[in-house]
Amino acid sequence: GENVEQHPSTLSVQEGDSAVIKCTYSDSASNYFPWYKQELGKGPQLIIDIRSNVGEKKDQRIAVTLNKTAKHFSLHITETQPEDSAVYFCAASKGGADGLTFGKGTHLIIQP
Amino acid sequence: DSGVTQTPKHLITATGQRVTLRCSPRSGDLSVYWYQQSLDQGLQFLIQYYNGEERAKGNILERFSAQQFPDLHSELNLSSLELGDSALYFCASSVGGRGANVLTFGAGSRLTVL
Prior knowledge:
The complex is a heterodimer of chains A (112) and B (114). By secondary structure, chain A is mainly beta.
């Protein structure tokens, strides 16, 4: 089955700086790559997703890039703010009955 | 509020016991997914139901079972509980049953087995 590796497990950046979280996947048939943000005491919330027919997608301060050849995708957060502090999960899916396979998460800490 | 409702929020029980977790999907969603989140294993997919029928199975133990009812709510039954079953259990819902679906998660049920 699909295997998703996520790095780093913890990322600390200064407020206002950029943060980058990287994921690799194993199944070349995967075609959907969402990113979820989980705040303390809450469930994961979708923040951005990308499908395999595009290489990059942006939504304000958040962007995701996908390299199908290398089988990796990344989350970029610019101008980080205190409210960006959370655990971020990447995931991959090839649709069908396999559902989403998640990475183990990145704890993003924004230092004031 | 994501629109996915899970009860109870917290549950403390003893080893060997049985518990039932309940999930109501977002209005209009036909699929329900169950995930287990523990510190060392991240989010593990357990099982998916679509419009009342089992659609996919992940790493669900034989001691665990689930069902989706005609009103689309779902229940996850955990029996012969062990200490290692202590975790957060999330329910998610989506509109479709196949393809790459956008999942909406509930706030989770925290299970503690003593």
